Amino acid sequence: MNNKSGMKKFIHTHRVAVIIVSIIAILIGVIMVPPMIDQAYMHSVVTGDEGNQLITNMLKETDPHAFTKDGTITSYRILTDTIKHNPMGGIMVSIELNNDPDLNAGLAFERNNSEQKLTVRITDLSTKMYRLYKRLGVYEDNESNE
Predict the structure, then answer these.
(1) CA distance 74 to 20
(2) Is 77 exposed, middle or buried (0-12, 13-18, 19+ CB in 10 A)?
(3) What are the C-alpha distances in Å from 130 to residues 11, 62, 77?
(4) pLDDT, tens digit, 9 for 90 and up, residues 79-112
């Protein structure tokens, strides 16, 4: 019983401090939790089965022999630290090919279609990746000096 009265006395004496700490804890929860939930959702979309399948299919369209002994593209890695919300909608992420940090591309995952089907598209390529795509015939050489 003495312990309960001591707790009541503490709370009564430090009421303002307890209220301030409670308000700060609530504000931290309101401010910090939604972005963490958004980040977890984006991570699950990009690294989940559907996201991985979309990336694999896109790379196989680029290199029909991708992920085989005859393919130029042998592997890819999602750079999870680059996953972020696209201000225009969707999710942006970078991938790296063949364990080469110079072979990278920016991708955008979107659901901007009537079926709300997830799609992926390339938003940017590193110089080395662009050269690889040209060599694979994805891009035509429009400039005579390259």
Answers:
(1) 56
(2) middle
(3) 65, 12, 17
(4) 999 999 888 888 999 999 999 999 999 999 998 7
